[in-house]
Known about the structure:
By secondary structure, the protein is mainly beta. The protein has three domains: 21-149, Chondroitinase Ac, Chain A, domain 3, CATH 2.60.220; 156-246, Immunoglobulin-like (Sandwich); 256-327, Macroglobulin (MG2) domain (Immunoglobulin-like). The protein is built from one helix and 27 strands. It has a seven-stranded mixed beta sheet. A five-stranded antiparallel beta sheet has the order 3-4-7-11-10, with no helix packed on it. It is elongated, with a radius of gyration of 28 Å.
Amino acid sequence: MKSIYILLLHLLLAGSLWAQQVQVGAGASVVLYPGSSFSSNGLVLTPSTTTTLSGFTIDNSTTVNHPFGPTYVTRVYQFNPTGPAFSGDIRFNYTDGELNGLTESALQVIVYNGTSWQAAGTSVNDGTLNYVDATGISNLLLGEVILANSLALPLRWGPISATRQQNTVTVRWITEQEQQVSHFDVERSTDGLHWATAIAGIAAGNQSHRREYVQSDKTDHTGALYYRIRQTDIDGRYTFSKVAMVGAWRGMDPLTVQPNPASGYFSVTGIAADEVVQTDLYTPGGALIKTWKGYQQRYTLPALAAGVYYARIHLANGQMVSRQLAVQ
């Protein structure tokens, strides 16, 4: 295989490579050694490990090939094909005319890694010399490299709630911001672990301000139910909201554990303190996790993985009452 070996000494003598397009044909490669540098029209790669680039091109463009919501500098470096994994530092040079209205002090290097956009290393900015350094990069695939003020997610979640009127559950959720969101799905669960789609394909608003969504789910399940929202963006990536829970609507006992889902602690309500003798916490498989003697205003939870557990309350009259407890 024909190879081009770029050493630090060679670069000091001959200078960096600058071109509108860098192309290494099939059967050829560029080998970068730790401490050496390779430049393509203002993009400088300084690897911390030996890196071989084979059969690739680096093109310059003013727009990205893969959708990116926030505003970015109008200089884009595109690697074809993506990769290989790069470790080291990247310097991204730009001109004032390419800033596109962005704040220089907040610029950071952002890379498309073949599947999604991610911030590259730790950014160090020089607004006088017009460059941004991304340092400490580890095993990052290089697809496209850009500068932007932030790596904004397509969606910022607000609160979610669920209320029940007999066999109809009304689910409300709020988004603080939407960018390039394709749609929402309402998912339902009877145990907080296994989920199914209850309402599919709810159109997104894609607005920069707060928006509320309301959906009604009719169900014959009379026990407690859990709801969450799945958002899918136009790239196919998705995120989930927090979980909202509604209790059973027939034969409800006044004794409850709350908040439910819980985070850090729970309380037992709907019963006098002197009626509680002991409270046990169990895994779904029936293994005892912790026991509390007597009544406590707050039952502090040990470190637990998110999931569904069971609280068993021993009463003074000899009865035992079990309640499902979701832990976030």
